[in-house]
Amino acid sequence: MRTSTRTAGTLIRIGLAAGRSTPGDRLRWWGLFCAALAVAFVTLATVATVATYHGRDTRADARGAVITDGKHATLLYREGADSVGNRPVSVIFLHPLTPEAPLPAGVSRWPEPGEVLLSPELLRTGHAEGIRTRYGSFAGTVTTDGLVAPSERIAYVRVADTPPKDDDRWMHVAAFGSGGGATGEMADQKPVASPLLALWALTGLPALALTVVAARVGSRSRDRRSSLLQALGGTWRHRMIVNIGEAALPAALGTFAAFIPYAVASVWDVRLGPTGYILDHRDVLGAWPTAAGAAVVSLLAVLGIVVGSHRVHRDGRSTRPASFASRVPAWRLSVCGIGVALVLTSQYVPHRAQLAVFTCGTVVMWAFLSSVVALVTRHLGSWLADNGKRKGHAGRMIGGRWTHAHPGVIVRLALAMVIGIGIVAQMQVWTSRLGVQSQAAVETHQRIKDTVIQLTTGGMTAAQTERFRSSLPAGSLLLTRAFHDPGPPKDPWVTIEGSCRDLRTLHVACPGDTKTAAGTSTQVQEMRRWYGNVKFAQVPHITVKPDSTQSLLVVTPEPGHLSAVKKAAYTLPNPSVQVETLGGNWLGPSRAPLANWIQLFGVTGILFILVAGAVSAAAEFVRIRHALAPLSVLTGHRRVFRSVSSWHLTVPLLIATVLTGAVTAWHSVFFIALVQEGSVSWTVLAAGITTCAVVSLAVGFLGARAAAREAAQWRPAAD
Fold this sequence. Notes:
By secondary structure, the chain is of the alpha+beta class. The chain has 23 helices and 15 strands. The radius of gyration is 33 Å and the shape is elongated.
């Protein structure tokens, strides 16, 4: 036992010394540091996500309304929806029936009739839209105990009058707390698996790719050391201890550095970039024990990748290392095929599982696509070497032989480009998922802005309708809209009614008009696009039926009056549930959060990929400058550097770029066919391919330049 411990200590010291003396040691040290930091960052982000979901569920449970029958009710409760900018807002209308009516979490007292409590984020973001007076008189804010997240936008409105008894929109509530329904952001919350899947697909995969690249920096010296240890009788345990000793310090420091942003999020509420979401520091703080254990797992995973990437033959008959630098393992090609198979079969699984299967297949395919590229370029290298030998082209022959002998180099260099193009393409496709209706809503907003506004009425009385009309901005038109569906064989239609004066303003002819209106207005054209078969009718006075079969339409003389119309609607004694522009429910509030989260994860993943590409390219420059330097003595000129670098680096990387572009195009089109929405931006894809092609040329040029500089000072050495 004592001998084993002493041997292990010696091997660890050998590994520590090797980390300070091997070629490219500083590059690998910083590469492993960044890799460990990236993997730990994603791991801790996973812990924070799970903790946040748990905290959200706990706080949502504390404020949920417990529905009961009319006999046991203590207050009336109704939910509505609104928006500030392109962000959704939850509006809760309340009317206590008794002085002892319970309070939801985050509310210390009931506001007076006509008053409203706002969440801090809603108060901040809605200041420019007059949010303080939109729903009534501002009476205070909701505390964080009543918010699922500090960034939640929610309002508690106490209506001014007692709701009508026959209004079935109002629910009877007995209490708030356990067993209550979901409100606010929780009404449409995705399961925790959704953000975790996106996090690991767009950020976790690049972090693992960075780890693989960093682990193989200076791999030639480590492969020789591994073969030497095997020749001396060392087992896999001895090689593992040496490799761990070499990588432990930078990996541990990188993992520790990942705790800095986690610690900041544990002390202060942190806003997550383009999403606008604010992490509640209490959730992150409470997950520290889990975070510590996850960090240990992350560190072990990094060290496991380091150990696994430096293996030798297990049969003991050869001291040659079985590293990826000399061949492409067959299992990598099989795993890539499995990823492609998952993508292809995702359309045949149940609908709920389609996206999960597609995403898993995508991650596997992109992770191992570079191995397929390496196999292609390895065979290409053999052909180039033979062709160069026949034609007497030294650069082509040497470059081809290197490509054939070291496909792992091409994999590490191509990995960043392959995953980078994939992430950029997926970000573009995901954010383009507007669908037909959403695209039509965007086009409508571009043409008429917010000049046509729809309101649900809920059976407004004549007095309320007249009060609403008098509160509208000057020059506004008030119309009613009703949907009629007689059933087959007749087609449904929509009736829009208004006074003759209002209809003529819209260039719609009234009964008895002798002159035909000179073309309908743009607002009417958009109504026909959305409502289909529209029939206009003249009525002397605007009235609303009590059965909620009608809705109101407000046409403003110019854009920019949406806030004023909302204030007029929400300050009624029995406010409308929803006020929105024409097609507004298909605009930003339902789509913007998804695009922002994809952007956050994707940009972080691209950052990791850029680091991986930089580390890989720098490591190759270190290797190639030493290997190419003696060629100037053998050939008598330096043109050979450019030739070898072009055939060994640039040509394989260009092939990788073309293959990746083709696979990305197929993958994006397949995804659009699967979800039945979105579009491929060929401009974005072409820009990504062009960028990678330029990088390929730059890598070959810089590699030749590094070798030329080394050749100027190269001297023979017994290495």
